[in-house]
Amino acid sequence: MRPHMRNLNLLLILLLLGLHLCSVLSWKRDEFRNCNQTPFCKRARSRKPGSCSLVARHASISDGELTAKLLTKNQDNVEDHDQIQPLVLTLSVYQDGILRLKIDEDPSLGPPKKRFEVPDVIVPEFSNTKLWLQRVSTETIEGDAEPSSIVYISDGYEAVLRHDPFEVYVREKGNGNRVISLNSHGFFDFEQLRTKREGEEWEERFRSHTDSRPYGPQSISFDVSFYGADFVYGIPEHATSLALKPTRGPGVEDSEPYRLFNLDVFEYIHDSPFGIYGSIPFMISHGKQRGTSGFFWLNAAEMQIDVMGAGWDAESGIALPSEKNRIDTFWMSEAGIVDTFFFVGPGPKDVVRRYTSVTGMPAMPQLFATAYHQCRWNYRDEEDVDHVDSKFDEHNIPYDVLWLDIDHTDGKRYFTWDSTLFPHPEEMQRKLATKGRHMVTIVDPHIKRDDSYHVHKEATQKGYYVKDAHGNDFDGWCWPGSSSYLDMLSPEIRSWWADRFSLENYVGSTPSLYIWNDMNEPSVFNGPELTMPRDSLHFGGFEHRELHNAYGYYFHMATAEGLVKRGEGKDRPFVLSRALFAGSQRYGAIWTGDNSADWDHLRVSVPMVLTLGLTGMPFSGADVGGFFGNPEPELLVRWYQLGAYYPFFRGHAHHDTKRREPWLFGERNTELIRDAIHVRYMLLPYFYTLFREANTSGVPVVRPLWMEFPSEEATFSNDEAFMVGSSILVQGIYTERAKHASVYLPGGQSWFDLRTGTAYKGGLTHKLGVSEDSVPAFQRAGTIIPRKDRFRRSSTQMVNDPYTLVIALNSSQAAEGKLYVDDGKSFEFERGAYIHRRFVFSDGKLTSMNLAPVSPGKSQFSSETVVERIVVLGHVHRAKSAVIEPTNRKVDIELGPLWLQWGRESAAVTIRKPGVRIADNWTIKIL
Ligand code: NOJ
C-alpha cells in the first residue's frame, strides 16, 4: 500500500474508532431496534389471543415418539394458495420427566429450504435418555369435540396434546393440575418459507442498513403458561431484576419485551429488558404452591419474550383451568424451528440439573481460574506488567492472573505481540509462572484484513470467512479496521481455529497463557445494530439471522478446544467469553461486559450473575469497579467486598479511566481491598468444592435464596442477597455511606456472622449496623465450611497449605459439609483422581467420610494436606479437649478467633492442630 493511502486508511480508522468511543459515553438507544422497528416482533405482538386456527391431526406413535400434523381447521378440503402447509409436530420424552416438543415444516412438502436447527448444543448423551414411547392414550377433555392424546412422561406427570384447539401441556397425574402449557391462549403462529411472488416487498431497512431477507418472513411465536407460579426468572442476558417484571399488560403498556439478541451495547443501562451480549432462551418459574418448572427453546435467532402482567387477558374471553398463580409469557423468534423442552421440577435444583442434562454440565475450571484476576485495558508494556505484579507482592495481596487487552498485539492482529511494548512475551509469562501466576491475552473474532497477516491470508485462501449476502467475504469494521469473521458454524473451521492456539502457531505463548474472547456477538462497528448483517451467509447456506445468538458460543467452543488441543488433552482450558448461548457453560467463564462505575451497576450485577447461574452458567462475574468511569474509593471497596463472592472475580477498567490497582487509594482502602481478596482466597476450598458440584449437577455456585429455601415466599424476589453454595449468605451494600442494612435471614436455624461469629436468628429481617470492613455475610447453622487461612501470592502456592474447618452448629448441635480436592489442573479427575469428603458433626463428634467411589484401577490423587484448625460455632457444651480416632491422640481445645487475622471480637471453640489428613477417614470426639 502506498504511504499516503495508508495514512488515509489510518485516519479513517481513527475516525471510526473515535465515533465508536464517543458512543461509548452513553447508551445510544437509537442505534438499536425496538420491537416496533422489528417487523416480526411488531407483527407477533399485535396478534390477538385465540388467533391460532391450527388443529392437530393424524397423531400416532412412530420411532418411540408421538407425531402429528398441524393444519388449519378445514385444510383437508380447501384449496387455498395462502393457506399454511401442514407442519410436523413431534413429542418425545426423556428420563427425569423431560418433555420435548418440536414443530417444523414438513420436508416432504418441499419447503424452499431447510430451516436452521441449532446443532452442537444438546449433548450427545442426552439422546440416550430418551424413553421409547409405546402407546398413546386418548381422553376427551371437558368441552372438547374430539379426544386429546395423552403420553406418559414420568410416574407423576403426563403430557397432553390437545387436538382442537391445538395445545400442549404437562399435567400432574391423578389431580390433573397443569404445570406448563403452550398455546393455551391461541397465539401460536409459524410463518412458513415461501418463494417470493411478483411485487412482494421483503426487504427491511433500519437506519442506513438494508436486510435483503431473501426468504421473507419466517418468524414463530407462541404463548407459554406456568402454573402455580409466583414469579418467572431466567432468559439472560439482561441488566434487570432477578424476578422478571411484566412487560405487557395493564400499567406496562410502553414496555419493550425482553430481547434476546447478542449485541455489543456500550454502557448498558442498569434496569432494562434490552438485549446485551448473551442469550439463553430458558425460563424458570417458581411458586409456593407448586415449586419450580422450566421451559427452554433451542433457537438461535433473535428472540423477544413478553412476561404478561396480571389482567393482560381481561378481554381475551379465554378462561384457563387455573387462573390463580399462573404466569403467562409470549415468545417470538425471527427464524428457526420450534424445539422446546419442558422441565417439571418440582425443586429449583431439579430444574437446573435437568436443563444441564440437555445442554451440558458446566466445565470444571482450573483452581487458579477461581481466584482473583487483575485486568485493565491496557497494561502498557512488560515493565508495567512487572510493576503491577510486584506491587501485589509488596502489598501482600494475592492474585492469580494478569490480563492483557487488545493493545498488546501488533495492530490488533491476534496471536501477535507488539514487539516494542512486549519484546519478551515468553519470559514475561515465565516470570509470572514462577510465582504460580498465569497470564490471559485477548483474542477477538474479527480478523484484520491484511494480506501480510498469516491468519487472514490462510483464512482467505481456505475460504473460511462468513460471506456477505452477495457471496463475498464479509468485510466489517472493528478494532483493527477492515476485518473479516471466521465462520465458526463449520466444524472444519473451528478445528483450524483451535490449531491457532498451539505453542508453535501462537508464537510467544507459553503453557501458562490462557485466553479471553471478547466482541464475539459478533461486534461490527459499521454493521446494523453494531453487529453482522442478518443476511450474511454461513456454512451450509444458513443465514446469519438464523444463528446469530450462537455465533459467540461457537467461537468460545473453538477457542476452548484449541487450549485443550494445545495441552494434549491434559490441561483444562480457561477461556472467558463475552457472548454466550445455551451450552456456553461447557466452555468456560463469561462476564457481564461493559458495566459502569456506579452503585446501580454494582447492584444489578447480583441479579445478573444469579440469573446466569439459574440458566446453567455458573462461572460468571461483573467487572469489579465498573468498566466505564472512575469509582469513588468507597464504591471500589464495596465492589471488591461483593465481587469476592462472584464465581468469576476480576477487576477491569476502560483505558480512559484512572489507574485503580488496589494500592492506589491510600492505606486504609488498600487494607480493605486486601481483606476482601483475602476472604476469597480463604474460601477457595469451598468455592472449588462448589464448582465441582456445578460440574456434576449443574447447580450453580451462587444461588438465589429461594433455591435453598424454596418455600419461603420472602425470598422469591430478593436479589440483594444471595447464597454462595448452601452455606453462606451474602448481602451486598449498594449505597454510599451505608450505616445499616436490612438483611433477611431465611429458614428456622441461626446464622453466624462470617467474621465475628455472632449468631442471628433465622426467619427474620435484621437491621444490622454496617461497617466499612466488609459486606454482611453469614454462615448457615448446620454447615461446615473448609477454608485455607494462610496467605500466599497465588492460589497455586496454597496447594499444600493446611485446612481450617468452620463448623456452625444448628439447634441439634449438628452440622455437615463437603470438600472436593483434585490436582486443580488436569482432566485426571474425570478418571477418579480426586478427594471428595463429607464431614458430619453430631453427638459431639466430627467424622470425615469418603464420598468418592472406590474402584480399583482408577486414577489416584493423593494429598498429605492436613487440617490445622477446627472452629466450632454455636457449641453449647463445655469442651476441654478432643480425642482423634482411630489413633486415640488427644488434642487441645481452646477459645480462639474465628479468623486469625480479624477475629479480635470472636472467641470460638477451637480444636488446635488436629493434624488429620484430609484424605483419611477419621473421627474427632469433643470431650
Ligand atoms: C470491550 C470489552 O467489553 C472490554 O472489556 C475490553 O476492555 C474492550 N472491549 C477492549 O478490548
UniProtKB/TrEMBL annotation:
GO MF assignments: alpha-glucosidase activity
Domain Glycosyl hydrolase family 31 C-terminal, first and last residues per copy: 698-785
All copies of domain Glycoside hydrolase family 31 N-terminal, residue ranges: 89-306
Alphabetized UniProt keyword annotations: Glycoprotein, Glycosidase, Hydrolase, Signal
Keyword Cytoplasm: no
Coiled coil stretches, renumbered: none
Secretion signal span: 1-26
Tree of life domain: Eukaryota
GO biological process: carbohydrate metabolic process; N-glycan processing
Domain Glycoside hydrolase family 31 TIM barrel: 362-690
Record family assignment: Belongs to the glycosyl hydrolase 31 family.
Protein name: Probable glucan 1,3-alpha-glucosidase
Organism: Carya illinoinensis
Lineage of producing organism: Eukaryota, Viridiplantae, Streptophyta, Embryophyta, Tracheophyta
